[in-house]
Recover the amino acids of this structure.
């Protein structure tokens, strides 16, 4: 997973969604180090990569240190409208072992503007809106980050120890299984497909 130690953050986010009122805010301090290998030339040309080759044409190494705040703007019958803000504390983006200043500049610019999303009563996030002309890499990063925070409650939370639901991630909609751990308030979240 992109963020392996997000359990505490998920609990805080779920508490904000369930108990919060307009104006309530939660803040996160986020540090991410990711390495990505890909064959983007084939994807960019619209051709699937059918080579089954382990030789990748692009290598990315990204380090992010961010602060993210999420504020409840309003509470409606079917959703809560949320505003998110990201402050970039430090950012190091590399493409094929060279600094990618251009991509970093676009990421910083996009992060300066707020984004909005809705949260359904069961915790499902949807309707993510980012400022016009935000770079696709920033939008996908943001969607992935928010999807990691998402905790979708079962229909009957008191009796269900395991349930499956469909959730949106940056790269599609997937079945996600939640399993209660040892009759506690801890849950294991697994993306199935």
């Amino acid at each position: 997973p992109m963020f392996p130690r997000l359990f505490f953050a998920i609990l805080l986010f779920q508490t904000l969604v369930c108990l919060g009122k307009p104006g309530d805010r939660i803040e996160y301090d986020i540090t991410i180090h990711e390495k990505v290998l890909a064959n983007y030339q084939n994807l960019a040309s619209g051709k699937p990569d059918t080579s089954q080759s382990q030789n990748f044409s692009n290598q990315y190494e990204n380090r992010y240190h961010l602060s993210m705040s999420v504020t409840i703007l309003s509470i409606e019958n079917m959703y809560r409208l949320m505003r998110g803000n990201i402050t970039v504390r430090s950012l190091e983006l590399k493409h094929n072992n060279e600094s990618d200043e251009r991509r970093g500049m676009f990421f910083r610019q996009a992060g300066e503007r707020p984004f909005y999303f809705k949260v359904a009563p069961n915790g499902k996030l949807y309707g993510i809106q980012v400022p016009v002309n935000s770079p696709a890499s920033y939008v996908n990063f943001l969607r992935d980050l928010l999807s990691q925070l998402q905790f979708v409650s079962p229909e009957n939370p008191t009796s269900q120890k395991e349930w499956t639901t469909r959730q949106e991630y940056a790269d599609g909609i997937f079945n996600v299984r939640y399993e209660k751990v040892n009759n506690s308030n801890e849950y294991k979240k697994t993306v199935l497909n």
